[in-house]
Specification:
Helix content: 10-25%
Radius of gyration: 40 Å
CATH superfamily of the domain at 250-433: YVTN repeat-like/Quinoprotein amine dehydrogenase
CATH class of the domain at 250-433: Mainly Beta
Distance between the termini: 108 Å
CATH topology of the domain at 250-433: Methylamine Dehydrogenase, Chain H
Shape: globular
Largest sheet: 4 strands, antiparallel
């Protein structure tokens, strides 16, 4: 019995010795047949560690940095210059409107899951020259829609004030100037338009300009041996005389609530003058004068007036500081008719000719004997320094001679008519350059 106990003790000690040796020996150093034995021991004794992986594949080095750069996002270039009308127009204007927007909504909130809301939008309306038909677009990227189809052919000039359109044309004999003030019709249930209703203003109205709020008009009408200036409603009613003059050749610009600028019609062969007319006080004061070929464009604040003067072979442009009486030369020469002021009067957008052919200005440009290829610039009113915006010829080989420039209500886009083809254009001021 004692002998059996001694033998059992020796066997136990041998087994423990073998275990202790191989459990502390790396598996890779063990004889090949015992590698699996080592794994088996560790499997049955959790304190011996995790099972040894048998996959000998070398793992990738996770510390190696990824030097590849992500591809830049694809940005679609937005064309800043867009032609809005394919046919000549007689004039355009801005107004506001409403549209219904449909959007997804919670089924808990509505039984249908559809929510409709009415939002305010800005619109541009323009009048086709050949027919007198009126079209509109939502600004800035809406599609064209016809809003009136009453035919009034041959309009030489048109003004748009909300739902009122003012047409200026010669009658059939070609001698009498007609001015028609029409109201946009409400479409019928089938989408057709009834005939536009309206009234005719006084025959041979020489000039007309809209008030800044688009609610009134100032007109110049022949009277005895001179002209009379009246303020009235858009349809010519509630007329009030505010001005009269023996001189008849005036160009009016209604610039602020109570101020109309009257500039003599320009010629490079004669001195020109400009005056401020207060429509409330009916007072008349000189703005500037005795300037050859004078044309003007006065700011809404009446603090600055952009003007040009004829020089030998061409013209030069300046800004007149009305309060100080000082002159601010522009770094770019253009005609005031090719500019429009910002609401703040701190800057002005101008179409600037690339080259100015030699001649008497503005006569030869008015007469259509020369046309310009314009670039567009933003000009600081205090310094006269110009900042480039866009070159239609460089970008698209377009030769545009811009007139009737106007900024939309938020001043993000410029609208103008090409003097040569009389089409309407839109220029984005944010995506240009």
């Amino acid at each position: 019995m004692k002998k059996l106990l001694i033998i059992s003790t020796i066997i136990v000690l041998l087994v423990c010795g073998v275990y202790a040796y191989y459990s502390n020996t790396p598996i890779a150093s063990q004889p090949e047949p015992l590698k699996s034995i080592g794994v088996a021991f560790r499997d049955f004794f959790p304190l011996g560690g995790e099972p040894v992986a048998t996959d000998t594949t070398t793992p990738p080095d996770s510390t190696t940095p990824d030097t590849s750069e992500p591809l830049p996002p694809v940005v679609e270039k937005v064309d800043p210059l867009v032609q809005l009308s394919t046919t000549p127009i007689a004039g355009f204007g801005f107004t506001s409107g409403e549209k219904t927007v449909t959007e997804s909504a919670s089924l808990v909130a509505t039984s249908t899951g559809i929510k409709k809301s009415i939002v305010k939008i800005s619109l541009i309306r323009y009048i086709e020259k050949a027919t007198g038909h009126i079209f509109e677009r939502e600004l800035p990227g809406g599609s064209e829609a016809q809003v009136a189809n009453t035919t009034l052919p041959g309009a030489q000039e048109a003004l748009v004030a909300g739902s009122t359109a003012l047409y200026r044309y010669l009658d059939t004999n070609g001698h009498t100037i007609k001015t028609f003030s029409g109201i946009l019709p409400t479409p019928e249930a089938d989408g057709s338009f009834p005939e536009m209703k309206g009234t005719f203003l006084t025959d041979d109205t020489l000039a007309i300009t809209l008030s800044p709020d688009l609610k009134k008009i100032f007109t110049l009408i022949p009277f005895d041996s001179g002209v009379m200036g009246n303020v009235s409603e858009l349809d010519g009613t509630k007329k009030t005389k505010v001005f009269d003059s023996a001189f008849t050749e005036w160009l009016p610009q209604w610039v602020s609530a109570t101020t109309v600028v009257l500039t003599t019609k320009a010629s490079g062969l004669a001195p020109g003058f400009a005056y401020l007319l207060d429509t409330n006080k009916k007072s008349f004061s000189r703005l500037m004068g005795n300037i050859s070929g004078l044309t003007t464009n006065t700011s809404p604040s009446v603090k600055y007036s952009l003007y040009s003067t004829s020089i030998t072979g061409g013209f030069e442009s300046n800004i007149f500081d009305v309060l100080s009486g000082s002159k601010i030369p522009l770094t770019k020469n253009t005609l005031p008719e090719k500019c429009t002021w910002s609401k703040t009067s701190l800057w002005v957008i101008c179409a600037v000719p690339d080259t100015i052919p030699t001649g008497i200005y503005p006569d030869i440009w008015y007469q259509g004997r020369v046309s310009f290829t314009d670039t567009f610039w933003k000009i600081d009113a205090k310094t006269g320094v110009a900042v480039f915006i866009e070159s239609p010829f460089k970008d698209k080989k377009l030769s545009l001679d811009a007139i009737n420039l106007a900024l939309d209500p938020d001043e993000s886009h410029l609208y103008f008519i090409d003097k040569t083809k009389e089409n309407l254009w839109q220029l984005s001021l944010s995506t240009a350059q």
